[in-house]
Amino acid sequence: ACPSRTAAPQMNGTSQPPQQQPQHTPAKKTPRDFIFGKVIGEGSFSTVYIAKDIHNRKELAIKVCDKRHILREHKEEYIKREKDVLNIVSNSGAPFFVKLFATFQDATRLYFVLTYAKHGELLPHINRVGSFDMACSRFYAAEILVALEHLKRLNIVHRDLKPENILLDENMHILITDFGSSKIMTNENDTNDEDDRSRARKNSFVGTAQYVSPELLTAKTASTSSDLWALGCIIYQMVSGLPPFRSGSEFLIFKQIMNLNYEFPDGFCPIAKDLIEKLLVLEPYQRLGATDEVGYPSIRQHNFFQGIDFETLQNQTPPLIY
Ligand code: ADE
User: With a 6 A CB cut-off, is 217 part of the ligand 1 pocket?
Assistant: First the structure.
């Protein structure tokens, strides 16, 4: 049993500082604490289930990873990174991220107990309506920007930001998920240790072809502004319906990215176009916001965000997607 849960309180009649009260650490959860429902997501070595906590009937999402598969594919580091980052983000109190409530394991699997995002991924919402109107695009871009400000403050680069990893909660606010490709930046200015770069080279690349930044393709180094590139791609996709770089093969998409080879369709909102052109810049440090010291004030101040109150986004009713 956990000794801290059974330790008796210390008597303290002297001038000694009082002993700490016994900590009531919650017992490690097990799969039997939950009723597992249907599959709501599938990754390359994980499956996400909707689940119910049997103690309070709360709906949750549980990501289940197969240990053998992780070992076979040498993904131990990625799983550990994901858990570490989810813990950092969850404990920071930042809004707009799924929360990690518990982790546990059995003989064959690892379990991550996460916030259940009732309205699923952002991608099918974009696809259902074709494209977002300006009010919608602006609102969701603003929530993503605030989330990226929190990640920057926490020295975390997501590195795989895309509309599949942006979930929507019961009130249609965003919850960013999937930190399996993320990076904790230990020293200012940069970037990735050689370990990470060589691993990246062997695995060909980190992230998803359409949203990956040029520096992740060439130098295999990421900074917080790699997520700003993805933000540019996502704003383009919300406004027009499709991501800016698209092609039949991953190789051709990479070539388009490296050559900044993309176009705006006729009628594309010129203010949105101006912002996207300032984010989709090959040199990471020349992207809008890249040299901002705290947060991304230079992006907040862009005309595209005119009328947005960034401080109260979480309490606003999101514009309807239709
Ligand atoms: N799909 C993947 N993760 C999810 C989550 N936390 N909530 C809802 N759908 C998901």
Answer: no
Q: Is 98 in the pocket of ligand 1 (CB under 6 A)?
A: yes
| Ligand 1 mutation pick, 40, 168, 178, max ligand atoms within 8 A of CB | 40
Residue type for position 105: Q
* 160 is a catalytic site residue: yes
* ipTM entry: 0.96
Q: Walk across the sheet containing 46-53 and list its strands.
A: 34-42, 46-53, 59-66, 109-115, 100-105
Q: What are the mean pLDDT values of the chain's consecutive 10-residue runs (322 residues total)?
A: 37 48 79 98 92 98 97 94 98 97 97 98 98 98 98 97 97 97 76 53 63 90 94 98 96 97 98 98 97 98 98 98 90
Task: Confirm if 234 and 165 have CB atoms less than 8 A apart.
Answer: no
Residue 43 CB coordination number (10 Å): 12
